[in-house]
Write a structure and sequence with these properties.
The protein is α+β, with helices and mostly antiparallel strands and 121 residues long. The chain contains 4 helices and 4 strands. The protein is 36% helix and 19% strand. It is globular. The termini are far apart.
């Protein structure tokens, strides 16, 4: 069994996306990671190597709002909260980094919710 984080094909997909998407202070990268149980999102400034804003389904603010953390509904809540935090910090535009995941299901729900809450990408 492969105990690495991604398979070789997933790593190639991630690198293909990452070489086109670079985050800056003015327009950070919205990086998404999903596991079977949870979904994580963060805004990253790649030039400084700093995470500006982050949220996930394990945070105290979201634990009570969602029944199952690995659902599309949970991804929507994470997207809305991330957008709200980003707007509070003064970030309006981001670059979306889907990583090795297809733009489908939970990843799409998170992105759509972030757009609806005010982020532009």
């Amino acid at each position: 069994m492969n105990t690495q984080r991604y398979t070789k094909a997933a790593k190639r997909r991630q690198q293909r996306v990452r070489k086109k998407v670079q985050g800056t202070a003015e327009r950070p990268r919205l990086s998404v990671f999903r596991s079977n149980r949870h979904i994580y999102a963060q805004l990253i400034d790649d030039t400084a190597g700093v995470t500006l804003v982050a949220t996930n389904t394990q945070s105290k603010a979201l634990r009570d709002q969602v029944e199952h953390a690995g659902s599309k509904k949970a991804a929507e809540v994470v997207g809305e909260l991330l957008a709200k935090k980003a707007l509070d910090v003064g970030i309006k535009c981001v670059r979306f980094d889907r990583g090795p995941y297809r733009y489908h299901g939970r990843v799409k729900s998170l992105a759509d919710a972030a757009r609806k809450a005010g982020l532009a990408f």
